[in-house]
């Protein structure tokens, strides 16, 4: 029945093309319809995910960053990571938590912001595919919210970003970590208190022996949350934990996020 599968795929393609003619794909960030000159760039985006060139330029920076913690660092590994262990085996981000990227992340956190989160996930893979590929990850997992906060908020930006990252990398997206203790929001605390706030708050949900995990969050501040999740995964047998986040908040910025 190979011929039937080919016909079905062809029909799906024709239907998708017809929908694009009737309802042109809009940018998941700004909602703008693509200009004629943007059609080729948007045509590369599969599964209804579109990011216009203008949003790509404003959300993705070219600032040299520490490969271990994602901090702006023109000289390679930053001083903090040279003094002590980084929060993960490697971290990639789209940029600093400010301006348009901050606005996009905050929109992704709200109900109805799922298209923005999906677009951020697509941008992460587009920007850092060679680095992530070199890590050789076996699975993608989101930094989890406590179930009470998840119920109140109605969405999880980290989960939505992680799903798109996994889809673009053709990797499974798995719930490998759970938050077993509700914690105060990280942005309510001074930076020096944030690592202690999440200490012991996570547990691996299943054994991950030998897995190389890509842990995904929306914003990273101190890295305390990534470190705690990494410890839980390592205790369950993970071989390595790498990380990706939409934004990296610097110490001078108001992080405005739940995780850190």
Write up what this structure looks like:
The protein has 260 residues and is an alpha/beta fold. The protein has two domains: 2-43, no CATH class; 61-248, Rossmann fold (3-Layer(aba) Sandwich), CATH 3.40.50.2020. The protein has ten helices and six strands. The strands form two sheets. A four-stranded parallel beta sheet has the order 1-6-5-2. Helix 10 (224-235) links the parallel strand 5 and strand 6. Helix 5 packs across helix 6 and helix 6 (114-135) packs across helix 8 (157-169). The relative contact order is 0.15. The model is unreliable at 1-22, 39-46 and 252-259 (pLDDT under 50).
- Helical content stands at 40-55%
Supply the number of structural domains.
2
Helix/strand order: HHHHEHHEHHEHEEHE
Please give the CATH architecture of the largest domain.
3-Layer(aba) Sandwich
Rg from Cα: 19 Å
Quote the CATH topology of the largest domain: Rossmann fold
**How widely separated are the two ends?**
51 Å
| Number of helical regions | 10
Structural classification: alpha/beta
- Provide the β-strand percentage band: 5-15%
Mean pLDDT: 80
Highest CATH level, the class of the largest domain = Alpha Beta
Overall shape: it is: globular
Runs with pLDDT <50, length 5+? 1-22, 39-46, 252-259
Largest sheet, strands/sense/barrel: 4 strands, parallel
Total beta strand runs: 6
